Fold this protein.
Amino acid sequence: MPDITHQRCINHMFREAVARCPECGRFFCRECITEHEDKVLCASCLRKRLKPSGQRFQPYGWIFRLGHFFAGIVLLYVIFYYFAQILLALPTAFHEGTLWQSGWWTQP
Ligand SMILES: [Zn+2]
Ligand SMILES: [Zn+2]
């Protein structure tokens, strides 16, 4: 087992390490180490632990952003589609008995 007193914090070169992160195996000072669920972890490993899915899918983050972008477009399209449907429905209501009775759009 390596002597921890001779280790330095990976973030603070002049501070003595007080703990070793079990996740990444690096040494950290009192300020850089945190406790999480009775486990001592460094700040970066804690961040990874709190956001496992975000960290795992980070290389494909742009796909999710693209998905959100297209989802926004689809949402806008749906909104405008129904808005257009309302606009299309209005003349039939205004001119009742003309277009509605002919039913040209229901014929195959
Ligand atoms: Zn760590
Ligand atoms: Zn430190």
About this structure: The beta strands are 19-20, 27-28, 33-36, 39-42.
